[in-house]
User: Fold these one by one.
Assistant:
Number 1:
Amino acid sequence: MPKIIFNTHDNKTHTIDVQNGLTVMEGAVQNDIPGIDADCGGGMACATCHVYVDENWMQKLPQKDDGEEDMLDMAFEPKKNSRLSCQIIVSDELDGLVVNIPSKQS
Amino acid sequence: MNKTDALIIGAGPTGLFTAHQLKLIGLDCEIVDNLDKIGGQCIELYPDKPIYDIPAVPECTGEELTNNLINQIKPFNIKTHLGERVDEVKKDGDNWFVKTNLGKTFLTPNVIIAGGVGSFEPRKFSPKECEKFENKSIFYSVKDKTIFEGKTVSIFGGGDSALDWAVELSKSCKVNLIHRRDDFRGAQATVDKVHELAKSGKINLFTKYQLTNVSGKDNLESIEIKHDNKDIKTIKTDFALGFFGLIMQLGPIADWGLNIDKKTVAVDTEKFETNQKGIYAVGDICSYPGKLKLILSGFHEGALAARACFKLARPNEKYRFEFTTSSKTIKDRLGVKSD
């Protein structure tokens, strides 16, 4: 199973196994990773599963669609490497993906 | 003071169906919601998105579901207080005293929290210093546009609210429009209008910039914005407006003495009552072993909480279970003819 690495704002690292086909958000919620609220449950409607993707991984992820970019306008302190973790689907290619969780979601 | 058998906080699907259940068994109720419209998350977050797991409804959108629920409770004429947030819930003898942010008060033996993930509040600017200017020179909605006349207003955001206000206020004030990227997500006609106004110098457009700091004594005097390429600009401004949509916050519910964990309220599964007698929680906001955050679960929870309300609202009567298909009393309440 691919491993996903979450760095939380308090400098802790959580490495979890996430099944292929689940989203990074679902992996975080199922494993109680702090700082991913996911209020809307993956509907791309709330921007509270916002993460900063590690620079080395940015190119390896599928492009954002317009809806995701629109929601990121609402996110707390969006940056160039901002993504909504509910839109990143885990696959073998993403084994070892590193994402950083913002200090807060709102 | 409004007296009622049960007060429902939240006009989402669960709150609406709970109201239906209360009225069906002969109790009266009123609903309060912080949003200015009925429907909760279904209307605010996904009015156009299809839902596939409402029993007996193969597919419907958030808006359709809301409209159907509104139709279902129409015979009951339920009083709904929109645009008001319940701030206070206090014990008053055998009743609960409830007060909204607009000062409306209720006395009721039963309070049912159907608050979803909390109340919708505007998303705010991230620099901490913004708080001290809030409601003086920093706003997240416009109530009275005349206060901006002849002043400099810096508007942040890329959606319809930000663009509409930029266009509107450019008629009477100096407008800076600041957005984190080049693309705007508002209606194309408004986006075109903004670009046109920017060309003619009526709007100062700053794209790929975000707010990093604010300063001023009592009122805002200037803001600092930072470009993607780290370039920093300081702009003199009298007001800053942020339009970043809404976010759900638990809000005052946290102060009512309830058992809260991870933004949810612990309840039993018989009455959906919290640790406070006469306060219930139903829908997404409640938690118990096996809880599913589904609309259908909210309907079940509301139906049971409504029966529990009967005991406290009618202590001297006995609740009698009846089917809508056969009960004359229920048909009378619904205003339909009995066979």
Number 2:
Amino acid sequence: MTQAETMPGELPDDAQPILSVRDLQAHFRTDRFGVKRDVKAVDGVSFAVRRGEIYGLAGESSSGKTTLVRTIAGAVKPPLDVVGGRVDFAFLPGYGGLRRAPAAEVARIRWRHLSYIMQGSMNVLNPVRRLRSAFVDFAYPHIGESRKQFEQDVVAHLARLKLDPSVLAAYPHELSGGMRQRATIALATICRPDVILADEPTTALDVVVQKEVLAMISGIRREIGSSVVLVSHDLGVHAQVTDRLGIMYAGRLIEEAATVEIFRNPLHPYTRHLISSLPRIGDDVPRKGLEGAPPNLADPPPGCRFHPRCPLAMEICRHKVPATLETAPGHRIACFAVNRSEAA
Amino acid sequence: MTGILRDLWRYHAEFRIGAALIAVALLLSVLASFSPYPPQQVYVVPPDVPPSLTYWFGTTSRGQDVFWQLTFAMRNTLLFGCTVALISRLLALTIGLFSGYKGGWIDRSLMAVNDTFIVIPLLPILVLFFFVMRDRMSWLLLALIMASLGWAYDARLIRAVAMSLKAREFTQSSLFSGMSTREILVQEHLPYVMPIVFSTTLNNMVWSIGLEVTLAVLGFTDINTPTIGGMIYWANQHTAMVAGIWWWIAFPTIAVIMTFIGLFLLAVSMNDYIDPRSRLRSFGGAS
Amino acid sequence: MSDLLLDVCQVSKTFTRGGLLSGQRIAAVKDVSLQLDAARPEIFAIVGESGSGKTTLSRMILNIEIPTSGKLLFDGVDLATLRTGADRLAFMHKVQPIFQNPFDSFNPLKRLDRYLFMTHRRFIASDGRITPEMAVDEALHKVGLSLKEVSHRYPHELSGGQLQRVAIARALLANPKLIVADEPVSMIDASLRISIVNLFKTLRDDLGISIIYVTHDLATAYYVSDRIMIMQKGSVVESGDARTVLNAPQHPYSRQLREAALLPDVAAGL
């Protein structure tokens, strides 16, 4: 990442972003039985999320999208290690990330300002306790009001999310997968957080249920005005709910624009391939596959990490990392073939 | 394999201590071949001599050298433990893998047998065998009996793993590659249960040696073959503790405790490494 | 009779869960029939959500699961009559599976090529002119790989897409007439998925292999399949030509599925 980088968050049409990530680097470092490995799962990612928007992160497995949200959420445990960069929340100024903030501050913002819905978190509800106890255990300490008032709040919150209050009396196994996931999301949003980080919230759900859960996430944004960072490998999910979309490849953010813009006018060769290879019902045009496979992040190719598979690869791509430049308003992209001026 | 052992040696203090203790036990049993006295003969040395330069561990009231007697006892005891472990592992592996893979009525009937063996009370059965067999009770026969009583619990563990392996896709791939049941069990599933086999082998040896010592101390085994338990039996017969011949009891006891701790430490440290999942992780694969 | 490659006649499968007396009976597949023509290879999609019985049905076609009632005939032979190991081997020679998780399709502790050579040795009569290496290399070439890339490799050294190609090459080595693929691309990365799907088309067109494609994804089903069958809770709700069914679904459930499928066309929603 170089000097020419356009910094996010300097957008004129908006106030300060609620979350901004700058040049974040997170590596998995292992040293087991003398074998040292350093997997650069997130390697210099910068982006900003505005108030009240749903920001999507898309990418294949091992593109680093899950590691990225984990790092933002402060869930950094060995072997994962943050090597550089900062994460700034509007409600937690000055520390550059949860990792560096004092424990009391972190406890203050968890739930009230920041919620993290982990991958498969709907399966971590305690199976022998009713959902009501989950709400009491997790959220009650953060609210600071009478127990009766809290009950009322929970019921009101469920009603807002179009969930029946009877789920509170149910055990997790009595609910379907979709219902469990919706209850988990309701639990994560009970304190009306400013930012919700949701990692693959609809994976493993059936399509019909998936649509309902996505509608619920849009509803949360509308009702309580939270910003959502939504991670999904499924571009269909992003098309459905996100406002802006960042595409990750091999630990880097390679393209970012409004979701509509990404689908209409993808610029990065990788994104172009992803969009054009999606099969669509009612469209019989043969699609072409892409050669090669995503790189091994323990030993990534030099320069642009996509160059071994890129149809537009040039000499410069082999040894220089392309900077993320804003080519059109709100459309950032890291590619020499698109940003010709940079390559020259 | 040598690489694994080298890594274990380098990174595991437990392994180093365990290996050292077992090495001492093995050295003792190897020395048995160099004994100047035949093991069963009595009054070959002056009785009741305390440990000295001539008789390192002293001599017994029966006129035997404790050190050389201990080498035979160690050899026989370790051999006994290995035999029981080997036979019972073979039984547990065969029955566990087969039962878990085949399922259905085969599984149900094998597990019915298995559960019977789990609930049989051990010590009374072994004592009963001794009273029925009396002088025909050789150590090999005892090993066979104990092996046939010692497989059941581990077979259940192995069966549980085999059942989860059966549900894995690679088992179906192997089946549709034309492999026979035997090939699937031996080539595909066996590597996954090896950690269980390794750790239970060492545990099983601890168990069988402990039981053998117990039986021998009580006199319910062939007392003429020198074993650790047999030595303590004879010492008790001659009221060695009361007579102040402490070395007759102390050295066999130290030897057996050393063997136990050594086996236990080896089991703990090897289990951590032989587990295929941690092994895969170490070279960067997914389990 | 024998002009049908596969004839599934009103099969049902009921699982019993729980004890002998208090057992709960769950009907996974109810009275399903389907036929594949031997003369005309095709890709037949079985579409459904979780719990629709699509995987149980595919396992019955593979003879891994025995139907509670109904009959399955492959090439005129009733699968229930396959008793000996030789019968089963003859069946597997003609019908081969491809599984969902490419990272688990091969034993992670073993080298990949052993499965390829094993399949060749077991199913193809040895021919003096073609060495096993040549046969395996040829099968790998059909899926866009070569023996050089695969030999002495362990599963974790290859990507999901490559592993799924190896799995297909392994199935091809038996020289089958039918491949049953259960969710073969759902765990494959987006940039590699379409090439696997295209590979199925090639197998049908160039090698004349029929494929049963089990999936929850309507879009790829539309893209590859000739005929489609939509299942819900064990029963078939709609079946027919893939284009007709998906362009204008008749049954309410198919319509619901079609609408819920997240179309990447943002333009459609604008």
